[in-house]
Amino acid sequence: METDAGRMDHAVAVFTSGGDAPGMNAVVRSVVRCGIHHARDVFAVYEGYQGLVDGAGKIRKMEWTDVQMMIYKGGTVIGSARCKEFREREGRLAACKHLVDRGITNIICCGGDGSLTGANIFKLEWASLLEELRSSGRVTDAQAQKYANINIIGCVGSIDNDMVYDGTLTIGTDTALHRIVDAIDAVQSTASSHQRTFVLEIMGRHCGYLAWAAGVATGADYIFIPEAPSKHDDWESVLCAKLDHQRKRGARLCTVLVAEGAIDKFGKPIKTEYVRQVIIDRLGHDTRSTILGHVQRGGYASAYDRFLGSVSGALAVERLLRTKPEDASTIVGVKGYSVAFNPLVETIEATQMVAKHTEQLDFEAAIQARGKDFKRHWAIQKSINRDFAKREAVPDAGKNICIICSGAPAGGVNAAVRSANHYALNLGYAVYAAYDGFQGFLEGNIKPLAWEDVLGWAGDGGCNLRCDRSVPSDPDAMNEICKQFKLDALLVIGGFDGLKGIYHMRDEVTVPVAYVPATISNNVPGTDFSIGSDTALNAIVSAIDTCKKSADASKSRVFIIEVQGRNSGYLTVLSALASGADIAYTPEKGVTLEQMQADIEEIKSHIKKHNKRHFVVVRNEFCSPAYDLNFMETLFREEGKGCFSVRTVKLGHLCQGDYPSPLDRIRATTLAATATEHLIKCIKGEETENKKVLVGFSESKDVVRTMEEACQDADWTRRVPASEPWAWLLNLQQCLSGFMDQVDDNQEYDATAGKLVTNVLLNGAPTTIKKVLLQPEEQDQGTQA
Ligand SMILES: Nc1ncnc2c1ncn2[C@@H]1O[C@H](COP(=O)(O)OP(=O)(O)O)[C@@H](O)[C@H]1O
Ligand SMILES: O=P(O)(O)OC[C@H]1O[C@](O)(COP(=O)(O)O)[C@@H](O)[C@@H]1O
């Protein structure tokens, strides 16, 4: 059996297969660059399995520069196809031969469950395919021995988010949500003008995730999904009663979403046109329908999908390097900032079970099999949408919850307020709003917030309750206001300073308080994400895309782009990673003159050796107390010595974004509902211990944490958590951009846990890495992009 060291010279191939999904290009880019980083030959297989079967020019060796300017694009630059031949042994035999000829035994397949099933069949059959080729003389004995094993890793590319696995979203889902939510926002504004009802069909043959998520993000009134049809025989009456009620309470429009594969409880398909006709016939609403179709799969990739594709591709390469012949194939799943490798066969089986349960009309099993979060999140959506006028009598009616927005505006805050408001009202609790943050609260600027008041807030940017940065510090004053307004609980939505205030008064404030983190800086301890950070990332990434394209049209230009974030480099690192920027200067690492000079020299060397035309430096507003944007511009221009031109952009408050992103709306809705649920438990006396909590995310799951737990590693002076879970992504960004500075390689890959959560990319001496990154052009001059 060959040794690990012996396998180091085997090449890696990456292909995209099945339905295309935005973010696939980020996977390809990441695999190519990480493979080269590890001194491997990397091939891209064009047109999915068809390329493997056809061989020849469809399997191309990739160089560093071949994957430039592709991260932002939708679809897949290397093509995808549905290939009949690969379903037959003859086709797979041809594929095996083409791979052996090129010394490829490491495969990364980015596709849906069909593609990954094909990959598994290929792996299981590999030995017999090889033997057939050897016995017929098409490969030599030596080749058969050398390439006796094939390693396969899957990355899930599918806009449907239909994989049942340890991983939050599949690649492409978030971008599809951007397209869907944009379309629904647009439709809602015209629908509102004419008081219309719109029925929209959303993709998802077997999976209702897109319809659910789009519904939550846009505040849709009714959602049909395959896994959870209405329990009523006559769903038409239920739908119409709901829409009628909405209208009578003042809603100017109604939105109904129908997943492509929606069915009723008898398994009969629910078609968009039929729904429209029912609404016209029974309610007489002016009702229109729109089938969004392939628009949902197209367009530029969202920031999250670029992040997801980049991390998945890199970690797939890392995993391949450590795969032993006896290891089963795995699928990469990303949750928060950590990665899980899921067993391929079991994952696909679990995924297919959902469709089977649905076919058998066992919907309880279907929604359970989707994963427990889905069931819970579906229930949250239903609670928010429930018709509160018809609610059963609630013992705690007469209790009041007050919402306070603190800090700076962040995309999704209004969705959080809407969610908390509807959730609480539907359970019989009155909701109050404090205007102008804690300042307003302490001044008694508090008013009831009616159900109708927050209509349309799911997609609103800014902060409709108005926020301010004051930090509360007087618990007596807080208690006095609660007493005066008969407030039984507080829901605070905001950034670091509000949390700090609540944390320090936690024992003195008498009412329960739930804190939902919301700031674009993503600097709140106790959570992986804060509301608003995804909107900000998308705004920044889109601005960098524009600058990159402008720079690419010029001859050798460096853009230095300053982003917000205060003492947190989150926005800097994540936007650099997602946009394919070259250099990221963060407050955590700081920036020295020496570092900038080294980077300038590196830029010059890239221009000479790789003929690269543009460079992007992303700097955080606080990355250096001494070297501001103007200084950097002067330094780069002066030391560039005419080799490149320099332009600067200070994004400032544009980082806060305009309309909140789908992810922020969904995160906000879920967190606020979970927080309100917790407050209600406290009011009811069901929760007696943890009455001051932070409701945030851990590995993308919503979690309720005590203030002590959440704030245990808060650095109160720098206003950041002492350990930032995303910190290792700077290493990945550097690896993928080819600009690596001095790195620390102390952290280890945890083989027992099967998890890669550290800077494993940096194993090996930094100087060697740098050299490897610069080698490809020198090795093979002929393959420029
Ligand atoms: N059981 C299988 N055996 C061999 N190849 C398969 C199998 N299932 C799918 N494939 C290959 O994967 C391709 C894409 O699969 P498909 O189900 O269409 O898309 P997706 O990957 O998006 O689920 C197919 O065209 C075929 O080439
Ligand atoms: O609007 P202001 O008060 O000038 O604040 C701008 C700051 O607000 C933020 O957008 C968010 O601030 P926080 O980090 O305090 O939540 C920062 O990234 C930025 O520096």
TrEMBL record:
Cofactor(s) it depends on: Mg(2+)
Top-level class of the enzyme under EC nomenclature: transferase
GO molecular-function term, one example from the UniProt record: metal ion binding
Domain Phosphofructokinase: 12-319, 400-678
Keywords recorded for this protein, A-Z: Allosteric enzyme, ATP-binding, Cytoplasm, Glycolysis, Kinase, Magnesium, Metal-binding, Nucleotide-binding, Transferase
Catalytic activity: beta-D-fructose 6-phosphate + ATP = beta-D-fructose 1,6-bisphosphate + ADP + H(+)
Superkingdom of source: Eukaryota
Pfam families, per database record: PFK (PF00365)
SUPFAM superfamilies cross-referenced by the UniProt entry: Phosphofructokinase (SSF53784)
UniProt subcellular location: Cytoplasm
GO terms under cellular component: 6-phosphofructokinase complex
Pathway as given in its UniProt record: Carbohydrate degradation; glycolysis; D-glyceraldehyde 3-phosphate and glycerone phosphate from D-glucose: step 3/4
The protein's Enzyme Commission number: 2.7.1.11
A GO BP annotation: fructose 1,6-bisphosphate metabolic process
Protein name, as recorded: 6-phosphofructokinase
Native organism taxonomy: Eukaryota, Sar, Stramenopiles, Bigyra, Labyrinthulomycetes
